[in-house]
Amino acid sequence: MRIEVVPSILSADAGRLTEQVREAEAAGADRIQVDVMDGHFVPNLTFGPRIVEAVRKATSLPVEAHLMVERPELFLEAFAKSGATLIEVQVEATTSLYRTVQTIKELGARAGVAINPATPVDDLREILPYVDLVNVMTVEPGFGGQKFIPHSPEKVRRVRALGNAFEIEVDGGIDARTAPLVVEAGATVLVAGSSVYGFKGGVAAGIMAIRDSVG
Ligand code: DX5
Q: Is 212 labeled as catalytic in the residue annotation?
């Protein structure tokens, strides 16, 4: 199974966004992730649909919009129109998760759900048959550069045990040390922000280090 490396632009240089996205594409990134934060669901404020549009224009790679926002159902059309090929919402952020997932797919995007570190895997059970991807958050969302939560691989294993018809993505503290741990547990989509855009050897070397670590 191919392991996908997905740079997230949270740690990119916002003043050189197009260039940084193109650097990641040239270095073999598989997708780009835009970390959308509203200052309510998480204590940080980041990007909106216009930035997804800018990323869309900068690359031919799939663009994921990770909505770390309250009531994501209010923003689905805007992010679908901006060119997001996959929209993922936090299971904790909406009271209408089934309708939200169905709407994402009706809008023509792939549907993902993300679960925070303290959210039980069992909260995924009913929605799993309808999603393309589960993002097992390996940090508490809100900021780049946080420490990988050690129990994450075991949690990934428990999500993988629920089925194989969805991708497992991990997000937060993913680098050459932690990537093998989560891949061995069943993750195939690795979101990496600071270990790519903050890598001292540069973006290409950062992506290479992660890819080499999982063989
Ligand atoms: C949630 C954000 C981060 C980001 C990755 O806080 O979504 O997880 O994508 O950040 P790094 O790779 O720097 O931990």
A: no
Domain total of the chain: 1
Known catalytic membership, residue 171: yes
Would the pTM of this model clear 0.85, i.e. be above it?
yes
From 31, 67, 191, the mutation candidate for ligand 1 (largest count of ligand atoms within 8 A of CB) is 191
Question: What is the full DSSP assignment across 25-81?
Answer: HHTT-S-EEEEEEBSSSSS-B---HHHHHHHHHH-SS-EEEEEESSSGGGTHHHHHH
CATH code of 128's domain: 3.20.20.70
Contact 160, 168 (CB under 8 A): yes
Measured distance CA(209)–CA(201) in Å, rounded: 10
User: How many Å lie between the centroid of ligand 1 and the Cα of residue 72?
Assistant: 19
Using left for φ > 0, alpha for ψ between -120 and 50, and beta otherwise, residue 179 falls in alpha
* Ligand 1 pocket check for 198: Cβ under 6 Å: no
Name the residue range of residue 98's domain. 4-213
The model's pLDDT over 174-200, given as tens digits with 9 standing for 90+, comes to 999 999 999 999 999 999 999 999 999
Distances (CA, A) of 67 to 6, 8, 37, 74, 124: 16, 13, 7, 11, 17
